[in-house]
Structures are given as structure tokens and as C-alpha cells.
């Protein structure tokens, strides 16, 4: 990791706690519009997120077509959910204004407790950039809301694809004028890191609660290469990563 000059971050789940943020907005909106108090908003939020994950991966792999703007995709999935038999009772309560407000909840996601402090510490050492499937306006609004101090925002919207298509990672590195070995992908999802590693990038896996379904399926946790695993580094916080990188910097 001592050759790394830029950290390139996944955002949803890695930098921000989308689940708590979206569930919180759903609860407030549900109460305002008279939804039953026992509505399982966690289940709704997960279904919304799962639809996004399925759509972006299928488009990235060329298996399907669809909107390359995530705001448009989120709204499409939201309307489908609210029209389904399981959620139609909620759908009848949410008018157009409510749906528009709810769809923009993804612009107002809060960071994890370590996020801002960790990013600011890392920014002093290296370039810090996003590489997210979120559209540009979403990422800008999120950065302002959560005080995320990015040096640069890369959205796959700019590259007409979604992760884990190789084009997304290659274009980000091209714009940074850096070779793969000088860039590290930071993510809470092993599929994202595998795609980055296949192109020669370094990889940092962030453990985040209930976030990485792909890693859970394996029945074992993600391990670093020194422990017989597949990623360069495994961390529990960005502040931990800042400390690790600080110790690896050459002394004068």
C-alpha cells in the first residue's frame, strides 16, 4: 500500500449508512401519511436497495438495459414496489409529492460514525475520490449533507456504465493520471474489490454491519492477503486506515 497515491471509494454502504438513513425517512413519511405503525420499513428499504443492486449489475454486465441515472432508477423501483401486492396499501398513501421527497432520501444519507474524521485524515495524505453508481447530483448533494470532503467526485453516470464494469474503474484512473498500482479501491462489497483487483488496483475491504451479502454467502469473512485472503487490507474504520497508511509513509 506504500505506493498508493489515491484512494477511490465506493459510497453506498461504505461511506454512508444508507439503511439507517432511508429507514428513518420512511418512518417519518409513513407517520405523516398514516401508515400502520407496524410497517416493516427495514424490509421495504432492503427491497428498494436490492432492486438497485440487481439492475445496476445486470446493466453493467450487458444483460439488461435501463436508466443510467440512479435517481431515475430509484424512482422506477420505488413505484414498482408501491404498486406491488405487498406494499400497495402504503402506495395508496404516498402521493406524487411524497414519492418525489422519498426518492431524494438517497441524497441525504448520513455517514458512518468514523466517516468524516477518517476521510479528513486520509485527505491529508492522499487523493480521496468517489467511484459510485450514484449519479453526479446525488453524490454532490450527499457530500454537502454529510460533510464529505472529497477531492473529486467520479460517478459511473459520467462513463455510461455501472460498476463492476471495468470501464468505470479504468476511466476514474485515467482522469487521475495514475496507474492501477497507485490506486486503491475502498469498498464494503467484495464484488467491487474483485473487479478493481482484476485491473491491478490495490484493494481495501471495510467491514460494515449487514452490508456485504456476497461475503456472507461464502460463510467466511473477507481476509487480507497476509492472512491468506484476497484483498490487500481489511479495516473496521477509515480512521484505522489513516493510521495504517501513516505508518507506511516513508520518513524524511
Could you describe the 3D structure shown?
- This protein is α/β, with parallel strands linked by helices and 252 residues long.
- The protein contains eleven helices and six strands.
- It has helices at 18-32, 41-60, 70-83, 88-91, 96-103, 115-123, 136-146, 166-176, 190-197, 213-218, 238-248, and strands spanning 6-9, 127-132, 152-155, 183-187, 202-206, 233-235.
- Strands 3-2-1-4-5-6 form a six-stranded parallel β-sheet, with helices on both faces.
- Helix 6 packs parallel to helix 11.
- The two termini are 18 Å apart.
- The mean pLDDT is 95.
- This is Haloacid dehalogenase.
- One of its GO terms (molecular function) is phosphatase activity.
- Belongs to the HAD-like hydrolase superfamily. S-2-haloalkanoic acid dehalogenase family.
- Keywords: Hydrolase.
- Pfam families: Hydrolase (PF00702).
